[in-house]
């Protein structure tokens, strides 16, 4: 039995679906089962619980062999994920696959708070002696549907604080496929994988790709990180999240997202999805 924590998110839901397709027995930890009906319909067993509730974690971990660990960004992230790690140890789970942060951010003295918390959780898992696999993905292509698509559709404008920095964006479905490969094999114990798309590109090139996909001109406007922060605050984003996004933007501007890995092909046997195929698939989201 594989327990998926974070099964209602972009990556976790895809992990659960791909595991079912592969023939694995899957249980998902969910706070609200009504939001996971689609997973239940696929045959995923739902365990109602919360990372802040040790008793529910113990119940969810019962009979579990492997755990996929991912949770929403939160200032208590290390504490909450640590609760899951402790429950996994109590249940004598044999393997933990954790989705972490982009490599340059994951360190005890890293520039981003969430990255530092990812490091704390990684360090905690390593200290347990439980076999682990840490996945360190870059920028998710799916994030563009939330951060970029509305303005592109309305104004034909791609505004972001990325300067000309190249970023090897990765499709969340490919991250999930790598996780599934790790969860269904003993060959990836105690390994750390960077997970990226097939190539790095800047936002000016992204604008050109969106132009081709939508059939209307899209232009890129570089926005200084602190100006972007003001816009985020006007949208009602909490200060800690704004600061995190600014920290990550500054990392990307410094080239943190430029590295291209072969992890997707190496672990899954297929090439990672391209930004061109993603843009074509989701072209309607970038149109009026």
TrEMBL record:
It holds the Pfam family NmrA. Residues 2-257 form the NmrA-like domain. It comes from the Bacteria. This is SDR family oxidoreductase.
